Queue: 2 jobs
Job 1
Amino acid sequence: MEDETRPYSPTNTEDGADRSSVGGIGGGSGIVRLKQTLGLHHGVAIIVGGIIGSGIFVSPKGVLQEVGSVNGSLIIWALCGVISLVGALCYAELGTCIVKSGADYAYISEAFGKLPGFLYLWVALVIIIPTGNAITALTFSYYILQPIFPTCDPPDIAIRLFAALAIVLLTFINCWNVNWATRVQSVFTFTKVFALAIVIIIGFVQLGKGEIEHIQNGFENTKQNAGAFALAFYSGLFSYSGWNYLNFVTEEIKDPYKNLPRAIWISIPLVTVIYVFANFAYFTVLSPQDLLASNAVAVTFANRMLGVMAWSMPLFVAASTFGGLNCAIFTSARLAFVGAREGLLPVCVSLINYRYFTPIPALIVGCVLSLVMLISKDIYVLINYTSFVESIFMGVSVAGLLYMRWKRPEMERPIRVNLILPIIFMLLISFLVVFPLFTNAAECLIGLVMILTGIPVYVIMVAWKGKPRSFKNFIKRLTISSQKLLLSVEEEADERKEN
């Protein structure tokens, strides 16, 4: 798809204006490319903001429901944080030896070739990311509208329209300025951490008052079967998903060899501490039965402890989801951008706006797909399949790390984790993939079908070189139109390789 559509150069446009003074990474280097603007604090904001969504506020009951006891659930939350850290360290090695944005796509393609990489790209861009964005936007919309409808649920049409507005607004911000997008991320990450800090402080105040009724017999009712603990781990690890978000924007990190691993070491232990203490705080106010019965745990907690300020908690939940949505839009656009740059998507998706240095076409594609998902009434059904599919590709990525250790021992690895870490992580992921086959076989089968639908698309759109001239001309016109309409040009390939 990439061979027929190279009409404009990055330095000269149709109007004859010389863009050689437009700097990318190097200021006046003459290269239009994504800029390295993300420092350590941006990296921390992306990881923390990507992990902490609405779950810890709304429904942290999955772990408790499966394990049965307060202390058992707290231990599972802590262990899930450790497991996530192990996985993130494996991705730190991958992200510093394959310095490409796109995370799993980049690593799978490098280790196993274009087809496996395309299958991840296909499922992620068409199903996983738009579904996640739509659900996050709907959650944001529900909680931002809830104070306006205190005695009933907001109307469905209002929720969906407000969700669409949030997606479009954040897409515009990401198109206009990377710094704006990162500021939004930093502000809303701080907001969600601040909200959880309030919950934790109240918990310690309650502890100081001797409110230990629900935690003094912490292991009471602990379930004894392995299946229950497996499901508890599955639920806990799902709440930590997002720890690999920074790997989607590796090319935009300043000094990624230092800042990527540092951001991981700061963020995931921080989130683990927050998750464990927030759950502990909930139990100083709510009984296990109260927590399991609540549809929005943090809101129930606030209603009991914040008095006249209880209205603020739904707004904090909305802020948390808004920041999570911004993070997903920011990172997923880089996945589409890199896939198109590698020739697996139409070249117009790989264009960069030469004024703002943002991948506007990729952002617009993500926005449209998310809005399409927003229309569907069955969107929540899809989320049941996506976690299984994500687990498969996460395992394939780490398998790629092991494979390249074996086949490419000479590869430069600024970070080289102990081999036991990827092996442990592979065993855990294998368990997470195999176990659902026995408990939810139908959902797993649908997830596998989603992956396999990408094969004919790959054969037709990528592998087949003898496409009709009319198709090639259509792609060429689409590319030229995108360049003119969005003031966008291609990144320069040679310079990219050097970097």
Note: The CA atoms of residues 31 and 492 lie 7 Å apart.
Job 2
Amino acid sequence: MKKQDAKKFFFKKKSFFSIPKSFAFASWLEQARIYRYVTMFVLILNLALIAIMSSPLGFIYGGLFESLDLIFLVIYFVECLIKFTATNIKFYWSDPFNRLDLLILATSFLQIINIGGYSVGRLSALRTIRAFRACRAFRFIGMVRDLQVISLAILRTFRTLIYVLSLLVIVLFVGAAMAFNIFGGEYFGSLLRGMLTSFCFVTADGWTNIQGDLDDAFGETSRIYTLIVIFLGHFIFENLLAGLMIQYLTDAEKHEQRIRKKKKQDAINKKKAFILEQQKSDLASFMEKQMQIMKDQPQFSFDDILSKLGGKIRHNNVIPSSDLSCSLTWMGVYLTSLQQHEHNMYRMQQLHFETAKMWKMS
């Protein structure tokens, strides 16, 4: 695509703002690869600054680090403004990762709001807002497409996971109620404590110490309860949750591959349509120009004009495809016919050699 055509394409696109030039520049900048690398590098620097502010150096150079953090907030605001300018408000808000960026930016700006001369960060009720600066690391999800696919797949599994976890809670409740009446004691003295102990069996973390105490108190028959809970919770429910996650991740990957394939095919179709339109325009202008030449100079025919173009045709020039010599199908059939003719000639030659040899022997 030529630069002028690309420029026309960008400037014809609709914008939320009434200034098409600013929209075209923002759209071009937001899609530029170097812009993405720069924004990712700025985010890495900001996360490094947050890590330093969480160290003892944060208490020594707190004022300097707060000023640098304010500069990063201004950069994030400009980035959000560019993205908002490059797209309309409906498309911007439809992307969940844009909403996530906007929420993180809003919580970051809350720490610099002054109420009665005091910073929000100094108020004990809202001091935890400053801790949300670490959530800026989630902006990496909006920058890397693969992370977006994984995040969306995890979100889609929540509905199914809720039913599976609900069934697991029911199993833990039944097991804890039965263990309360059978064992009681330190680990099953209440329903909540019994569910917590059963959950330790489900996760298979630290259950050996619990089972040792149960063996000392109730004998080896308590192992029956332990085996049932571990089998149902650890071997069935945990594997079921892992299988659901793998299934949704696989479906998300296949869906992403279809989207990428469709985008690639759409880009190819647009390019083909652009080339075809350009060829039609070039052919029309060429025919108009040559017809004008033929009117001005009647002694020249169209065949003479084509003969002058010999050796001057480039790969992107339009040629008259109505001629058989320009048809790829006809050329393929012609070459196949030549090969078949050569094969028949070789067979005839071998037949003549055999006939001459038989006459010589006789």
Note: The mean pLDDT is 77.
